[in-house]
Design brief:
Structural class: alpha/beta
Oligomer: single chain
Radius of gyration: 14 Å
Order of helices and strands: EHEHEHEHEHH
Number of helices: 6
CATH class: Alpha Beta
Number of domains: 1
Distance between the termini: 40 Å
Strand content: 15-25%
Mean pLDDT: 96
Bound molecules: D-ribose
Helix content: 40-55%
Shape: globular
Low-confidence stretches: none
């Protein structure tokens, strides 16, 4: 087992996921990581692309090692984050996907839906993702091909 690495993790959400964000933030901190909260912290209806972009930019700029995004489904906020160059945001609703998106896709953001997964599953997804490692090799080439698309 590799030595535990303390990471800086950006977290963002819309109004559908404030409570889950707070629980996940506390959980990630309990694992020893630092969490940068990009909001929202309000239950007022808001626009998920705002938070997807904030977290996407923080991760792409290296201000955070990786990111966690939560909206109703995890989909809208991940689509928004994926518009930021260098972001590979992946929606996960199960732990198998959570480790594979790191191992194969080197996802630098995971997303999930507060209306889709329960809190315990969400915690398992986060822990699984944070502990997984990129496998490189043939996956490196494919990830590079994704980034080539951004240059065209
Ligand atoms: C907000 O109602 C909802 O559309 C949003 O949280 C998300 O599920 C979008 O993908």
């Amino acid at each position: 087992m590799q030595e535990e690495m303390k990471m800086k993790i950006a977290i963002g959400n819309d109004h559908a996921a404030v409570e889950m964000k707070n629980e996940i933030k506390a959980y990630v901190e309990s694992l020893g990581h630092e969490v940068i909260n990009y909001g929202t912290d309000s239950n007022e209806s808001c626009d998920y692309p705002v938070y997807g972009e904030k977290v996407g930019k923080a991760v792409a700029a290296g201000e955070a090692d990786c990111g966690i995004l939560i909206c109703g489904t995890g989909v809208g906020i991940s689509i928004a984050a994926n518009k930021v160059k260098g972001v590979r945001a992946a929606v996960c609703s199960d732990t198998t996907t959570a480790h594979l998106v790191k191992e194969h896709n080197n996802a630098n953001i995971i997303a999930f839906g507060a209306r889709i997964v329960g809190l315990e599953t969400a915690k398992d997804i986060v822990k699984t993702y944070l502990e997984a490692e990129f496998l490189g090799g043939r996956h490196e080439r494919r990830v590079a091909m994704i980034h080539d698309i951004e240059q065209r």
